């Protein structure tokens, strides 16, 4: 699910916010949205029809506040999401929709394993697409004030889909955050990247696998996916490797990494001139990967590091990679311990963002800084021992 605000919308946002501020009286908020919609060129009749019966959905806010699954470490999270059944069904779908995937790879350069992994994780290959009313979810989240800059533009995108006859405000359903269809795309992404993959004259992401997969491929291409390039590869790291060089912040050519003794655990490393980063999601004693430029495109779809790592890894499994070597990583922190750690890091002047118990990029960077200060291995993996030292 992509969470970006285009430049044009960013420029328009102050004016829009002045007309429909988040929070406050919900009825007045809706009136403000209606005025904005009319000013954007929609007819009052269309606007009234779109917003008729709109309501706040407390279940959406509850789901937004309860994303505890992203607190899981990579090994636990990946084992939870990847099963033999899910892998087998992915391979079966690769054969069933081979013509669609061939066209996607030809037109957009996105490898089939990548889209199959998204399809699996987002909706279990279309089986569970969410039953939240999409319009109500978007309006609820835009009114909530936590991330209005993300969700307000999606309301008007949904209104535009409604004008085209591709959105029913009373019946269109999806995920709690407003994503629709088999690969869960937000309304604006559907407007910009929707593809009629089955040739029926409509972009129907809920019922047409061809439409959903083609649209997902086009969106990834628009986000910068490079045709024919890898995204993630498990590696073997030599003894004595300088772990301070690991992390997404450090990029070197594949040839440079090879010169340090890094090898592919299966097959060969990518072209020597391709930039890459060494990632150890659970520290130097756990599995280790080389992340190529396409890996960063994943963060335009979902900004959770553990989700991105797992989706990228599963894509490689769907295309023949072996199960990663889990190693024997040091024990990590519980959710409450992670919050405690984030509080201590913040008190030391580190910007860890929200204290939410999730090991995000800012928290990893702060952990690395403290590991360096304390003279311990700088791998970005927080442990009870580190917490104790702080």
Give a short summary of the structure.
Keywords: Signal. The protein has helices at residues 7-19, 26-39, 44-51, 58-65, 74-81, 84-96, 98-107, 112-123, 134-143, 148-163, 187-193, 209-222, 254-259, 293-301, 305-318, 335-347, 361-374, 384-389; strands at 132-133, 173-174, 232-236, 252-253, 263-264, 275-279, 289-291.
Strand order across the biggest sheet?
4-6-7-3-5
| Helix-strand sequence | HHHHHHHHEHHEHHEEHEEEHHHHH
Annotation field: number of helices = 18
Work out the count of structural domains: 4
β-strand amount: 5-15%
The total count of strands amounts to 7
Helix content: 40-55%
Shape label: globular
Q: Can you give the mean pLDDT?
A: 92
Structural class: mainly alpha
Distance between the termini: 36 Å
Largest sheet descriptor: 5 strands, antiparallel
Q: Over the alpha carbons, how many angstroms does the gyration radius reach?
A: 22 Å
Low-confidence stretches: 2-18
Pfam family, one: PG_binding_1
Keywords: Signal
Protein name: Lytic murein transglycosylase
InterPro entries: Lysozyme-like_dom_sf (IPR023346), MltB-like (IPR043426), MltB_2 (IPR011970), Peptidoglycan-bd-like (IPR002477), PGBD-like_sf (IPR036365), PGBDSf (IPR036366), SLT_2 (IPR031304)
Describe this protein with a few key phrases:
390 residues, mainly alpha, Lysozyme, 4 domains, two-stranded antiparallel ribbon, 18 helices, disordered N terminus, Lytic murein transglycosylase, SLT_2, PGBDSf, signal
């Amino acid at each position: 699910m992509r969470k970006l605000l285009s430049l044009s919308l960013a420029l328009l946002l102050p004016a829009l916010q002045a007309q429909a501020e988040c929070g406050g009286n919900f009825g007045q908020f809706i009136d403000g949205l209606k005025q904005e919609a009319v000013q954007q060129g929609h007819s009052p009749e269309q606007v009234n029809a779109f917003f008729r019966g709109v309501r706040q959905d407390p279940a959406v806010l509850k789901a937004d506040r309860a994303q505890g699954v992203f607190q899981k470490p990579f090994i636990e999270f990946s084992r939870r999401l990847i099963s033999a059944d899910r892998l087998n069904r992915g391979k079966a779908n690769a054969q069933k929709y081979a013509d669609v995937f061939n066209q996607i790879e030809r037109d957009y350069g996105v490898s089939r394993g990548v889209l199959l992994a998204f399809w699996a994780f987002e909706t279990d290959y279309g089986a569970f697409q969410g039953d939240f009313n999409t319009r109500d979810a978007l309006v609820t989240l835009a009114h909530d004030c936590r991330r209005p800059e993300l969700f307000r533009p999606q309301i008007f995108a949904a209104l535009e889909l409604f004008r085209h006859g591709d959105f029913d405000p009373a019946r269109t359903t999806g995920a709690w955050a407003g994503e629709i269809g088999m690969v869960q795309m937000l309304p604006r992404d559907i407007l910009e990247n929707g593809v009629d993959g089955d040739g029926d004259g409509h972009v129907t992401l809920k019922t047409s696998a061809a439409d959903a997969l083609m649209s997902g491929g086009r969106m990834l291409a628009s986000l910068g996916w490079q045709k024919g390039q890898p995204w993630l590869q498990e590696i073997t790291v030599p003894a004595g490797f300088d772990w301070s060089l690991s992390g997404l912040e450090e990029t070197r050519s594949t040839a440079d990494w090879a010169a340090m003794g890094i090898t592919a655990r299966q097959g060969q490393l990518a072209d020597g001139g391709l930039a890459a980063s060494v990632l150890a999601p659970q520290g130097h004693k756990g599995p280790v990967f080389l992340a190529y430029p396409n890996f960063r495109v994943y963060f335009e779809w979902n900004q959770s590091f553990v989700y991105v790592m797992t989706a990228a890894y599963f894509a490689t499994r769907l295309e023949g990679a072996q199960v990663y070597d889990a190693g024997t990583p040091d024990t990590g922190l519980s959710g409450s311990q992670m919050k405690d750690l984030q509080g201590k890091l913040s008190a030391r002047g580190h910007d860890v963002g929200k204290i939410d118990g999730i090991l995000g990029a800012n928290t990893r960077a702060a952990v690395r800084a403290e590991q360096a200060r304390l003279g311990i291995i700088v791998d970005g993996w927080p442990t009870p021992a580190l917490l104790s030292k702080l």
